[in-house]
Write a structure and sequence with these properties.
Elements: E1 11-16, H1 17-28, E2 32-35, H2 42-55, E3 58-61, H3 65-77, E4 82-86, H4 88-93, H5 95-103, E5 108-116, E6 122-126, H6 131-136, E7 145-147, H7 152-169, E8 172-178, H8 179-183, E9 185-190, H9 249-254, H10 261-269, H11 272-275, E10 278-281, E11 288-293, H12 295-309, E12 314-319, E13 321-323, H13 327-334, E14 339-344, H14 350-358, E15 363-368, H15 377-389, H16 397-413
Parallel strand pairs: 2-3, 2-4, 4-5, 5-8, 7-8, 11-12, 11-14, 14-15
Antiparallel strand pairs: 1-9, 5-6, 7-13, 10-12
Length: 414
C-alpha cells in the first residue's frame, strides 16, 4: 500500500540527515516516538516532535533511555508504528529492552546516530563502532536487521525501509547512521505519497477466542493484534510457546521444539535473500574488493578511483544491509579475488566478519580509524596497493583444507 498523503511532506529540501530521518519516519506512518535527548541525534527527535501534531503522532521525552525503549515496545503492541532515536550511550542502555522486543516479536525502529566511544566518548564526533553491539548487544539467540545509510537522502529512504522490514518480519530494525551523515546537509527529495510503499501491519482477523499470538504463518512470522481489543494475550520475556506461556525446564527436556526461540533466528536467516541489499561496482574482473558501509563508502570512492588510475583492478561492495550479513556473497567472492580491503571508523568489527566469510581464500586488510573524523582516502588507497602486492593465501578453500590436513598428518607421523 502507498503512504498516507497527510504523512508525506513532498518536495525538495536542503536539510541535514537527522531532519531527513524524521521526515522518513512520518512518511512511513510512525505515530509514536519516545526518546531522551542525546547528541548527535537530538535534531532528529526535535524535527519529529514538530511534525507529530501534523501527522497525528505523539512524541514523548522519557526520563531516560530505559523508559524510552519500554514505551516504544508498549506503543507498538497498542497498534502504533513506533520508534526511538538515540546515540551510543543511550543505545547501550536500551539493550535489555531491545532483547525483550525481539523475544516478543515487536516491530519497531531504532535510529542510532553513532558517535565515538566507549562511555561518554565523543559526543559531537563520528564513529561506526556500534555495529557489533547492534547485532549482539542483548543476550541470548535472536536476530535483528540493521541498515547503514551514507547520506541524508538515504536517512530518509532507509527509515521508511526500516519500518517496512520491521512490520514484515515482526522484528526490531536499526538504522545505523552516524554523526557525519546526521549532521551533513544535502538535497533531500521527498517523493509524492503515491511513490512511497509502506508495509501495513499484519493483523489477525479471525475469531478472538482462536488467536494464538506467536503462531507463525508459512514465512515464520506471526500475525499481531492490538492489546486492549479483547484478545487473550500473555506476553512475557521468558522463553515461551506459541501461546506466550513460559516454558519450564521439563518442557525443554521433553520437547524443545515447543519454544519459539529458534524461530526468532530462522525467520530472518531463512529470508536473508529477500532482506539483504548491497551496492556493487566492477566486481566482474576485480582482483581487490573494497567492502565498506555508511559514510566510509563515500570516502572510499576516492581511494578506489586512485587505485584504478594506478592500474589496479579494484571493485566495490557497499553493505546497505549489514545485519543479516551477506555471508554467502562474500564467501563466493573470496574464491575469485586476491583480497578484501575493509575501511571502517572503528578498530575492527565488520572486517572480522569478512575474514570469517573469506575462509582463508583471500587476504583481508582492515583500514581502521578510531573515530572523530572520516578516513583519509589515501589510507584506503595504500591498503589497496598492499592487498594487490600480497600473495593470495590459498586458491580455494579445498586447497587450504588439503594443506592443513598434510601438516596435521606430518605432525602425527612424528
Amino acid at each position: 500500500m502507498n503512504a498516507n498523503p497527510k504523512d508525506v511532506f513532498s518536495g525538495t529540501y536542503f536539510i541535514d540527515g537527522d531532519v531527513a530521518a524524521a521526515y522518513g519516519a512520518a512518511a512511513a506512518g510512525c505515530k509514536f516516538l519516545a526518546g531522551y535527548p542525546i547528541t548527535p541525534s537530538t535534531e532528529a527527535a526535535e524535527a519529529f516532535a514538530k511534525l507529530a501534531p501534523r501527522v497525528g503522532a505523539l512524541f514523548i521525552q522519557m526520563e531516560d533511555e530505559l523508559a524510552s525503549i519500554a514505551a516504544v515496545v508498549g506503543a507498538s503492541w497498542s497498534g502504533k508504528k513506533s520508534m526511538t532515536i538515540t546515540s551510543g550511550p543511550g543505545f547501550s542502555l536500551m539493550m535489555e529492552g531491545i532483547g525483550f522486543g525481539a523475544a516478543i516479536e515487536t516491530p519497531f525502529v531504532i535510529i542510532n546516530i553513532q558517535r565515538g566511544g566507549p562511555s561518554t566518548g565523543l559526543p559531537t564526533l563520528t564513529s561506526q563502532a556500534d555495529f557489533m553491539q547492534a547485532r549482539w548487544g542483548s543476550h541470548g539467540d535472536y536476530e535483528i536487521i540493521a541498515l547503514a545509510p551514507d547520506s541524508p537522502q538515504e536517512n530518509f529512504d532507509f527509515v521508511i525501509k526500516a519500518f517496512n522490514l520491521a512490520e514484515k518480519y515482526r522484528v526490531p530494525v536499526m538504522v545505523m547512521s552516524d554523526e557525519c551523515v546526521g549532521h551533513m546537509t544535502e538535497k533531500v527529495v521527498v517523493p509524492d505519497a503515491s511513490e512511497i510503499e509502506v508495509e501495513p501491519r499484519r493483523i489477525y482477523k479471525g475469531p478472538k477466542d482462536q488467536y494464538v499470538p506467536f503462531r507463525p504463518d508459512k514465512d515464520l512470522v506471526p500475525k499481531m493484534v492490538k492489546a486492549g481489543d479483547g484478545y487473550q494475550l500473555y506476553i512475557t520475556g521468558l522463553t515461551h510457546d506459541e501461546k506466550g506461556y513460559p516454558l519450564l525446564e521439563k518442557d525443554f527436556r521433553t520437547n524443545p521444539r515447543n519454544s519459539t526461540a529458534k524461530r526468532l533466528v530462522d525467520k530472518i536467516r531463512k529470508n536473508k535473500d529477500k532482506i539483504i541489499e548491497t551496492q556493487e561496482e566492477n566486481l566482474e574482473d576485480a582482483e581487490i574488493v573494497v567492502i565498506s558501509y555508511g559514510i566510509t563508502s563515500r570516502v572510499a570512492i576516492r581511494g578506489i578511483e586512485k587505485a584504478r588510475k594506478y592500474g589496479i583492478k579494484v571493485g566495490s561492495l557497499r553493505l546497505i544491509t549489514v545485519w543479516p550479513f551477506p555471508d554467502q556473497m562474500i564467501s563466493e567472492l573470496s574464491k575469485k579475488v586476491k583480497g578484501f580491503v575493509v575501511p571502517e571508523i572503528n578498530y575492527g568489527q565488520i572486517a572480522y566478519e569478512v575474514e570469517r566469510c573469506a575462509h582463508g581464500n583471500a587476504n583481508v586488510i582492515l583500514v581502521p580509524h578510531g573515530g572523530g573524523s572520516v578516513h583519509n582516502p589515501d589510507d584506503i588507497f595504500e591498503a589497496i596497493k598492499k592487498a594487490a602486492k600480497e600473495k593470495k593465501k590459498y586458491d580455494t578453500l579445498f586447497e587450504f583444507e588439503t594443506k592443513l590436513a598434510r601438516l596435521v598428518s606430518k605432525e602425527y607421523k612424528k
